[in-house]
Please model this.
Amino acid sequence: MRTSGSRHFVKRQARAAFTLLELLLVLAILVIASAMVVPFIQGMLDDQKLTDVADMFRGKAAVAKTHAVNDGVAYRFGVKITDDELHWRVAPDSDDFWSNQGSPSQDAFIDEGSIKGIRFKVKGNGLSGGGGNNSSDFTRLLSFYPDGTAQSYGDDGLPTDTARMINLQNPGDDYGLVIQIRGLTGAIRSEWKRID
Model:
């Protein structure tokens, strides 16, 4: 036979809230974790911006080549740098479309835009941005012809067989993306390198 003992079970009631110490501890952990993660994510976003610019260069070169073949007219892909902005343009390879005097005499495809917040340098010709340089003329990077070929141009504006190099950097970084533009084919290749 079982007899009931004098044991009393005290049932604890659940707490309705967290203590101040628990809340501060969790908050401190979140602040420390975010302080470690945010710079890493910012660096990834900055690197992605450079990659996007390289992809844009490839895309604009393909647009120029396509219009040259389809329209039967040579097209040029050029850049100019003013202060911290890179301006680019794809238009027919005629002075009417590239000089700042007047407007073109014919209707044609023109694609242009600009990108801010990246340091640029077109190797060899002193064209650079992000440091207060102003240039009113576009530097011709490539011309595409109706037969599907392309031609790169040197610092003197004359055709050359050597590749043009464009360095893209995030301000404060010692590495960046080097874009290499080849003549004849108009191929654009990019790779990450240390840039002095």
